[in-house]
Amino acid sequence: MRRVALTLRADSVEDVLDVLMPLLPEGVYERELDGGRAEVAFYGDGLTDGQLEALVGHALLDRGDEEVPDSREERRRRAGRAWTVGGRLRVRSPEDPPSPAGTLEVVIEPAPGTFGTGAHPTTRACLELLLELEPEGGLGDLGCGSGVVAIAAARMGWEPVFGLDADQRAVDSTHANAQRNGVAIRAVLADLREIPPPPARTLVANVPLDVHERVATALSPDTQHLIVSGITATQEEAAAAAYAQAGLFAAGRRVAAGWAALRLARP
Amino acid sequence: MTLALLDPSRAASAGAPHGQLATAVAGGLRLSCHKLVEDAARATILLVPGLLRLDVRPLEDSLQVFARALHPVPPRWELLGGTAGEAAADEPYRLEWRVDAAPEPRPVRGRVVVAMTVDFDQGVAHFVAEAVLLEVSA
User: Fold this and answer.
1) Residues of A in Cβ contact (< 8 Å) with B45
2) pLDDT of A176-191, one tens digit each?
């Protein structure tokens, strides 16, 4: 199967999609690139080279074609691909080339059904806000998914690092990815609607609003920093209010693609 | 006479690659479409040439919806409600909007519904979308 990747100016993507989307029923994969550029990729032979040139040639900065295995799993891996957070942390799949020596790197093999491949805006926001903190003491990753945040935290210097998730596949995936990255993380199966969060100095919670509201009522006074993610922009106020009751207030914020994330701290 | 933008043959033709069904109803157009969309892919689920396009992107356990205006006067979308399922829930996502557009010579009002059911193990989501768009009488 052919994978076609178009490099465009980021501000021309929607106009290009107006032309391409009607012709590509299986859809496209978008990702931001540096320098105000974006990539729009698709699979298959639905468009000839001549058609592509005629339709979007004026907007193309670059174009790449590659043969890829004809499997959905392969497409899933490639949809995430490598990405960099805050210019300091690189997240990649095992299939991507390694980062240069000295780069802070997390290698994630997403297991089917687990959250946190790194492709999701909520995961990226967690990592961006984590980079704003100085590592100190323990960290709990609530809703750890594939373990990407927990592994990044361990790499950055938090110790010990715990992961909690209500899905056994996520717990298993976190352990496997921790081993792949050579870090020690204890991941456990736990439903935060039923048990309190661990009394770690720093918590990262990429969970739905109702879980945040439950966590807020059960926080340990030892928790000084909390990264809140997994909420939409319209839910931000409710989440902030719940944590304000627990004595935590906003010290940082990210909003992307309708999702909001907060970095909270005790004053 | 129905607006050209609500001509079912145009919507059926443009939406054919997507499996979109377009039929005439009194004073307007009814659309229906369903498709499988791979995780992280952005795909079109409804298309009315010259008026609007609705794209969806399932991403892990969430859904992004892109309402793209294809008319110089962008249609106004108002979320009427819905359910946003989570990973462990059995309920599909279901979102419903009211759409108001202002093509000449008569405005259009409609209702759009999108439902998504995710198969995490297969990395794919199944979408069902329906819309009814009607001319607004003076």
Assistant:
1) none
2) 999 999 999 999 999 9
A75–B70: do the CB atoms touch at under 8 Å? no
ipTM for the predicted complex comes to: 0.91
* pLDDT, tens only, B89-134: 566 788 999 999 987 788 999 999 999 998 877 788 999 999 999 9
SS3 of chain A? CEEEEEEEEHHHHHHHHHHHHHHCCCCEEEEECCCCEEEEEEECCCCCHHHHHHHHHHHEEEEEEEECCCCHHHHHHHHHCCEEECCCEEEECCCCCCCCCCCEEEECCCCCCCCCCCCCHHHHHHHHHHCCCCCCCCEEEECCCCCHHHHHHHHHCCCCEEEEECCHHHHHHHHHHHHHHCCCCEEEECCCCCCCCCCCCEEEEECCHHHHHHHHCCCCCCCCEEEEEEEEHHHHHHHHHHHHCCCCEEEEEEEECCEEEEEEECC
Taking the CA of residue A30 and the nearest CA in chain B, the distance in Å comes to 8
Find chain B residues with C-beta within 8 A of A166's C-beta: 88
Nearest CB neighbour to A112, from listed B41, B88, B123:
B123
Task: List the structure tokens of A88.
Answer: 């300091």
